[in-house]
Every structure is written in C-alpha cells, then in structure tokens.
Amino acid sequence: MATLSILGGRVIDPASKLDSITDLHIADGKILGTAPADFSADEQIEAKDHIVCPGLVDLSVRLPGAVHKGTILSETRAAAANGITTICCPPDTNPVIDTPVVAELLQHCAAGMAKILPLGALTQGLKGEHLAEMGILKEAGCIGVSNVQAIVNTDILRHALEYAANCELTVYLHAQDPWLGRDGCAHEGAISSRLGLSGIPEAAETIEVARLLLLIEMTGVRAHFCRLSSARAVNMVQEAQTKGLKITADVSAHHLFLTEKDISDYNSQCHVCPPLRSQNDKEGLREGLRHGSLHAICSDHQPHEADAKHSPFAMTASGISALDTLLPLTLQLAEEMQIDLMSLLGNITYKPAQILGIEAGTLAEGSTADVCIFDPNKRWTLNEENMHSLGQNSPFLGWELKGKVNYTLIDGQVVYTRPR
C-alpha cells in the first residue's frame, strides 16, 4: 500500500486535543506518529493554509431505495466529496434493514467510498409488532438498532429495549408521540395557524422523551436520542444524564440555523421531520451543544427529486439534502457561537464515533487514516450545480458558505480531490 505525506497543514484532532501546524504521515492505511528516518512518501499533499482533521462521522444519512432520489454509490460518493468518511444509515431503507442480507448488501455496495454502518430495525418491518432478530443483525454488521417511528405498544417497546440491552446494542430513538400531531407537517404555533398547516406540538417530542427515559431507566439499555428539536427535550435529556442514565443525543445541522419562520412563505425546502421549531428552541439546541448534553451534529441527509418538493407544503416529502452543508454549517456555527473550532469539529468526528462505538474520528498514531483536508477560508455559494448529492432539496440554496473540502482519504487512499 502506498505511503503518503500531508505537508504543512493545521492538524486538528479533537480526540487528542492536537492543534498544530505539522506534517501528517500515512503508511499501510494507518496514521504514523513520528515518521521513521528512512520514510519516503509515494505521494505528497501540500496542505498549507488548510485544516487537516479526522474524516467526518455522520450519524444519519438516508440511503433511498428509489434510484431517482439517489443510490448507495451516489450518496456515499457525495459524502466522501464533503469529507464524510463514515455514515450511519437508519433502517427505513427499501427494503427495511431487518434481515442480515440487507445489512450486508449496504456495506458491500459502498466499498471504496464512505463507510456505511447500518442500523437494524428494532421491530420487524419497523411495524412495532414483533421484535427483530437483533442478535443476528448485530452479527451482520449492524452498529445498533432503531425504531425510526414510535412503537405504540409500550409493552413491546419495553421488551425490545430489554432485548437490545441483552445484545449489548445501542438503541437509536426518534422521539415523537404517535398520536400528537400525527397528521402535522409544521411546528404547532402562530405561524402554522396563520398558514393553515396542521401542527406538531412540542409536546409530541417531550412526552415521548419522558416515556423513553422511564423505559431506559427500567431496562438499563444504552440509548441515543436522534435529532432532538426542542429546548425542553434537551433539558430533559440533560437532567437524565446528570442522574447517570447511559444516554446521548444529537441534533441536525439545519435545526441549529432554521426556525418555523423559514416556512412562512410555504417554503417546502423547510419541510422536515421533526419540524423546524421556535427561535427559543433553536437557541436551546445551540446551548445543548455548548454544555454538552447534545453530543453530535449530523446532516440528517434525505435526498429527494425536484418534484417531491413541488407540491403544496403539506403534500411534499420531508427532508433535506444535507451532505454538502454539514461541514460549512459547523464552521459557521463556531463563528456565530464563538466556540473554538476544535470543540465543534469534535461534534462531527470523534464524538459521533464514540456514540457508535467505533475506532474513528481521530488522527492518533496507529488509527485508520480517514482524513479530511479542507480550506476553511474558501467562500462559495451553494447551488444545484455544485451539490454532490443527486438530491438537491436544500433550504440553504443561495447561501454563501465558507469552508470547502479539497481532499478526502479513506483507509489512507485519496478518494476525492476537488477539481481545480
């Protein structure tokens, strides 16, 4: 395997608290510490005025079954083009990840691009009726299990959490009450009322968080809350963490920037689930990152074809094509919140890797050489032509962003180079 040197970059490794202008050397797909005296690189990358950091780890990337929305190859290639080297795929693919065959196929199809870590279904077909064979799914490479939508029957949910705990699997939970706001498409409040849109109240999230916290405490399962959207839910999770519950939580990048006000002209690009909430909720989510109750920022990437967003708001598909904006929005967040860059890079590298329980998100000696090299000062405007995903459904189209990936390495191999 070729050797490689990355020269003169600002190396930031949040896992080891390294922030230094230095060279990084790679051999046999691994990060070297001090290069041996006789080390000679087969390839060199000049990284002056660039940041060299661990490859990004994204906790939620949908891999749609419909080719017109995107394929496994197109979306893992898009991830790599944006410095994302590991993606976690929720189980609501087509077909659902509830058998070893589907889990193994996903991982096999991504060979050479961003690594896929599938989540298995908590129940068969995600129907909330019969438990999935979690032990077998774990053997097939599933990194955890997830419900995606609420399991209505609390007894089934309890047994599912107990089964996951016995299998030593983390449960990735989406907190939305199955009845409150079940027909809603926007945050319940003055804006949704004025627009005549069915609302999803904050309580739809917080009631389910409360139910899940009680069951987590009862079963002892290790759990992760996916895409929290309300300040109150963050506070509930923080309180439970102080009591010693084994829980973590994440937030999507778009919930840190957008609010219910962004749908005021029926902008279907802002139709997401959970919905964009109030300004107070946005601020509460940001504070959750600041004080550590929210551990990771994810893209929550859901690519759609153009027609999926060209209907009346309530009839459009929910979701954002978000791989292209994860890194630049994180960089912008560091500026707006006046948080040091190392801390927020940690929220998209080693902290999500810790949640997943994998050895990634670090540039420590001996670690796998998954590396992102980006120009932090490169200004660019997001448009349909420069998006790498097949899905171009983004509310950030037209935004001027800062930060562009120049190289992505996976297992020490350059898999993406930005065209000059």
UniProtKB/TrEMBL annotation:
<dbReference type="InterPro" id="IPR004722">
    <property type="entry name" value="DHOase"/>
</dbReference>
<keyword id="KW-0665">Pyrimidine biosynthesis</keyword>
<dbReference type="GO" id="GO:0006221">
    <property type="term" value="P:pyrimidine nucleotide biosynthetic process"/>
</dbReference>
<dbReference type="GO" id="GO:0004038">
    <property type="term" value="F:allantoinase activity"/>
</dbReference>
<dbReference type="InterPro" id="IPR050138">
    <property type="entry name" value="DHOase/Allantoinase_Hydrolase"/>
</dbReference>
<dbReference type="InterPro" id="IPR011059">
    <property type="entry name" value="Metal-dep_hydrolase_composite"/>
</dbReference>
<dbReference type="InterPro" id="IPR024403">
    <property type="entry name" value="DHOase_cat"/>
</dbReference>
<dbReference type="InterPro" id="IPR032466">
    <property type="entry name" value="Metal_Hydrolase"/>
</dbReference>
<feature type="domain" description="Dihydroorotase catalytic">
    <location>
        <begin position="51"/>
        <end position="230"/>
    </location>
</feature>
<dbReference type="GO" id="GO:0046872">
    <property type="term" value="F:metal ion binding"/>
</dbReference>
<dbReference type="GO" id="GO:0005737">
    <property type="term" value="C:cytoplasm"/>
</dbReference>
<dbReference type="Pfam" id="PF12890">
    <property type="entry name" value="DHOase"/>
</dbReference>
<dbReference type="GO" id="GO:0004151">
    <property type="term" value="F:dihydroorotase activity"/>
</dbReference>
<protein>
    <submittedName>
        <fullName>Dihydroorotase</fullName>
        <ecNumber>3.5.2.3</ecNumber>
    </submittedName>
</protein>
<dbReference type="GO" id="GO:0006145">
    <property type="term" value="P:purine nucleobase catabolic process"/>
</dbReference>
<keyword id="KW-0378">Hydrolase</keyword>
